[in-house]
TrEMBL record:
Keywords: Hydrolase, Metal-binding, Pyruvate
Fumarylacetoacetase-like C-terminal domain ranges (all copies): 26-223
UniProt-recorded name of the protein: Fumarylpyruvate hydrolase
MF terms in GO: acetylpyruvate hydrolase activity; metal ion binding
Pfam families hit by this protein: FAA_hydrolase
Amino acid sequence: MEFVFDPVVTSLVVAGREERFPVRRVYCVGRNYLDHIREMKEGDERDPPFFFQKPTDSVVTDGAVVPYPTATDDFQYEGELVIAIGAAGYNLSVEEAGSVVFGYAAGVDLTRRDRQRESFKNGLPWEIGKSFDHSGACGVITPVEECGHRLSGSITLSVNDELRQSGDLAQMIWGPLEIVSRLSAQYRLQPGDIIMTGTPAGVGAIVPGDVVSVAVEGVETLTFSIGPKEE
C-alpha cells in the first residue's frame, strides 16, 4: 500500500521493552476527584464519569519541551494516572475490565483554562481548551504484570521541584477498572487506546521555563519542560 505522504505513528516507551506502544486514541475523564470538583466549583459530586478526547498526535513524551500554546493566558497542568489498553473490549463489566489493561503511566492533561471556562459558560465543546497541539503528556508505560492495577497509591505533581498537587489514586470517584468498564459501554476499546483518569486538587498555571514532574506510585516519573510561546 502506498500513501500520498508518510503516515506518522504516535508511540510511547514501555518499561523494560524495546517495543513501543502505538497510540490509537486518547480518552480523558472529566472531574474524577472530589477535591478537584470542589476547587473548580463545577459539576455534581455524584455525576457519573464523562469522557472527552484529545487528538492522538497531541501526545508528548518524557523529556519533551512543550511550547506554551497560543490563544491562552492561563495554561494549566493536571497530573493524572494513565491507563494503557492492550486488548479489544466492549461493554465490559468491572470484573472483566482488568483483562484489557496493558499497563499504567503518569500523565498530564494540559489545559487552556481560560478557553475551557469560556466554553463551559457558553455551552460549547471543550476542544479549544483541552484538545490542542502538545496537550497530552504521557510517560513510560509500566506493564500491569509489573505494577499491578493502580487502585491506590500516591500521585504528586511538582513544578520546578515545588509540590503543587498531592493525592492518592484511591480518592478517585471512579477507579481505573470502573473507568474502563464505563468507557467500554460507550466505545469499543482497542489496543493502543490510552485513558487519562482525572486529576486531584491543586491545578494551576505554568509558564515558559517551568519544569513539570508527575510521580505516580508504581510507575515511572514523567518530566517535561515548558518552552517559549508558539508564534
